[in-house]
Amino acid sequence: MDINQFVARSLGQWRSQRSAHHLIFAHFEAVKSVIDIVALAPDDASVLALCKDYDIDPQQITSPFRMSWEGESDWDDDRNEELKGTTVLVPVPDLSFANRGKLLRDRGYAETMAAVGEYYFTEDGIFVLETQYDRAAAEEKIWFVNPNLRFRVSTIKTSDGNGVVTASFSSEIRALKSQN
Amino acid sequence: MDINQFVARSLGQWRSQRSAHHLIFAHFEAVKSVIDIVALAPDDASVLALCKDYDIDPQQITSPFRMSWEGESDWDDDRNEELKGTTVLVPVPDLSFANRGKLLRDRGYAETMAAVGEYYFTEDGIFVLETQYDRAAAEEKIWFVNPNLRFRVSTIKTSDGNGVVTASFSSEIRALKSQN
After folding, report:
1. Do B21 and A17 touch (CB under 8 A)?
2. Residue B121: closest CA among B87, B98, B90, B105
3. Which of A48, A92, A176, B143 has the fewest Cβ atoms within 10 Å of its own Cβ atom?
4. Closest residue of A to B155, CA-based?
């Protein structure tokens, strides 16, 4: 599995069930959402802007894409908070190691700010993404169970990487084939 | 990571949050439980009985243990079903591949019957266990985030291995050090 295959398999619409475990309070949160992942042209204005922000040569990038999501949480039944967002993601493969690279993102999960993460693939085909924020660190493991089902395990840690604050698990079922 | 290290790190008492995703109905289930994992002697009567059932030479086994759990599900609030059980597990390392083997179990997760699974470790230290039952197949991935936190992702598939019926995620926090 390389980053181009991984992005290609991810394109399309997905129906996601996400369970978050807030570990300190042993609290459960359940979120249902719809996720759309679409390919972007390497010279899309949003892609070029992100490259410029991180001082990356656009020649070095591959398979940029946009991810959008819209969901509902059970966290507060009265409020029934709507979770909605969109982010541009730009892989920058490592020149020396085919299974590693950076992932630029114009908005993070843990904090609503731009971020650059480090990714690698395990021999088992699991995509692992580690992102450092100012006051937190995030790790995501994403893998395909089959072409129409992918799993995502995310952890939000304190910035020293030791304390895990939130663990979450998403099962994502393909709703529509990509039209890219 | 080998099976002896993995079992040694697993000994003790764990407080588990488990979220099950019933994929066909997009239903969430939340379970809290306490899990106790204790080492057994290689010549414990329950271990020898399991070896005999599967025609395994007790000289080939390593690090047998007992896992017990007691939990509460939110599946039906009226009933508040109690989930309680205990099982003996006996690793049988492969003679040719250090990171592979069989795991004998006197009672399975997916069905209340004895089972033998095949395990291996990935280079990333993830323990992967695959178990075939008569009418279903189960896969578990278990890994340690740190010595006091482990994650477990389980899938129950149709026996042909294609259809995934249930996906579940457990975060397990160490409650007590093992006294073994």
Report:
1. yes
2. B98
3. A176
4. A145
Q: Which residue does chain B place closest to A128, by CA atoms?
A: B124
Query: 10 Å Cβ neighbour count for B57?
Result: 8
Quote the pTM value: 0.89
The Cβ of residue B137 has, within 10 Å, a number of other Cβ atoms equal to: 20
Listed by start position, the domains of chain B span 3-172
* Superfamily the domain B3-172 falls into: Calycin beta-barrel core domain (2.40.128.20)
Q: Which of A28, A151, A173 minimises the CB distance to B30?
A: A28
Distances (CA, A) of A31 to A72, A169, B113: 5, 10, 34
User: How does pLDDT run across A11-26, given as a tens digit for each residue?
Assistant: 999 999 999 999 988 9
Q: What is the ipTM of this complex?
A: 0.87
Strands (E), B40-126: 65-73, 82-93, 100-105, 115-121
Residue contact B171–A167, C-beta within 8 A = yes
